[in-house]
Amino acid sequence: MSLKLIDNPPPWPNGARCAVCFSFDMDVESLLHLNYQGSARRRIVTSSTMRYEPIRAIPRLVEIWRHFDVKQTVFVPGWCVETYAPSIELLVKNGHEIGHHGYLHEKINLLSRDHEAEVLGRGIEAIEKVTGKRPVGYRAPSYAFSENSLDLLIENGFTYDASLMGDDVPYILEGDKGSLVELPSDMTLDDWPQYVSMKEFGVQMPIRSPERAFEVFRAEFDAAFDHGGLWVSVWHPFISGRLSRAAEMVKFIEYMRSRGDVWIAPLAEIAAHVEQLRNSGAWTPRIDRLPYRDAEVPHLVPLPQN
User: Which residues, given as ranges, of the chain have pLDDT below 70?
Assistant: First the structure.
């Protein structure tokens, strides 16, 4: 018998060995306008790079997912929903989920609770106006989940979050207002460190070939498949929707299916499955209580000043 490295894997639908979601964050130019408000309109090359998402990447991803008959999740800041509504409508028309991703990609753990609530509300309004329904899933921009985020999400009817990195399988986030499902990922499944070299965003690393990048993604998938885990990518259309990387994604989905029973689903469906298991008593997920600390940890000695 092979050694099992996950001690409490959830039972996936129809006996699947693992659950998979190619989740994307469609940020378009939100980061540019957030970080360079005064000069964003003059940064034409960077803007054109980000606008690759609605012009080329989103239609390409929709076609790939149609080919494999799968539905997936795309997290979109509210400003991008408003500005690029036709792309959102195309995703919704093809059955894909639109998740909340801030309004202008704000780092919400730098905001007050009131400002975070305002950003959350504006994003909900934008998504509801274009899609006709409120989002149920959330991913914090830049992974900047705050000490107020959980309670605000619960107050606004969200059923799951996909911002954290605390496990190999789904778990439960519990706070003063209640609880919701956490669908974790990891930086190993983020395309940013593999491909991005953009001085505007402070990243100028060597760009990997798709083959090299997918060695990392494939290793994570193989482990999830072997041990019953959850595989959730955190990818961006202007990055992984590029031609060579999208072509490699097609090969990767074919590889996933060649290994056996894999459940590829939008995150809302995965979260609903977890809740059904939990409510029926068929599986008991781990519970994480937030916040982790109620106060700052005291320092033993004063830190040196720069």
Answer: 1, 306
